[in-house]
Amino acid sequence: MNSWTAVVVVAVLLLVVFGIVWTMFQRNRSRALRQRFGPEYERMLGEHGSRSRAERELEHRRHRVERLSLRPLPADMRNRYAEAWNREQARFVDEPKAAVSEADHLVEEVMRERGYPVGAFDQQVADVSVDHAGVVENYRAAHEIAQREERGQASTEDLRKAMVYYRDLFRELLADTRPLPAGERR
Predict the structure, then answer these.
(1) Residue ranges of the domains in the chain?
(2) What is the pLDDT of residues 78-99, one digit of tens each?
(3) pTM reported for the whole predicted model
(4) How many Å apart are CA 1 and CA 126, to the nearest integer?
(5) What whole-number distance in Å separates Cα of residue 103 and Cα of residue 166?
(6) CA distances (Å), 143 to each of 75, 103, 109, 185, in order?
(7) Helices 96-114 and 156-175 meet at what angle, rounded to 10?
(8) DSSP character string of 14-77
(9) How far apart are CA 133 and CA 121, in angstroms?
């Protein structure tokens, strides 16, 4: 075997090894994103029509949230918000529309206090999906019902569902009290 043949064989072997390592890296990355984002991963696949584009978006979300200064709420503030939530739940019986509207505001207020930027709903959902992927679809559904209510198109049962959906996210945001080790994100 001459030296050129040896170089070609080594180059081909290196390419094969690189291909195997790259494939394993991609699979591990996909698995980690699927575990972290749960149903949101599948939603993004459907929305983007491509695994690589969906995963790029999810990685972008993760990096964005890592740059935020998210913090747990102090116990007294958690208690104050929990009491406010209980008042709105009780208010639902007599004033379901007002209670749902206030539930939306309470969720945003807790997000703001925790360090999430609030404003554009789609960005809020993207940010929340990073650490609370299990309830982000509920958040979308609650918000959609609240918008329908503003147009007079939501039933009392729809409003009840919105309260339950908001409550799920609200509880997660409120209960997230673990301090983060330096340099680590949830």
Answers:
(1) 3-67, 75-175
(2) 999 999 999 999 999 999 999 9
(3) 0.78
(4) 57
(5) 7
(6) 27, 10, 15, 26
(7) 20
(8) HHHHHHHHHHHHHHHHHHHHHHHHTHHHHHHHHHHSSHHHHHHHHHHHHHHHHHS---PPPHHH
(9) 15
CA distance 108 to 61: 19
Cβ atoms within 10 Å, residue 167: 19
The answer to whether the beta carbons of residues 70 and 116 sit under 8 Å apart is yes
CA distances from 99 to 91, 110, 122, 167 (A): 6, 16, 22, 12
Structural tokens at position 94: 């007599």
Query: Which token pair is 184?
Result: 């680590």
pLDDT digits 0-9 by tens, 167-182: 999 999 998 765 444 4
Structure tokens at 92: 């639902």
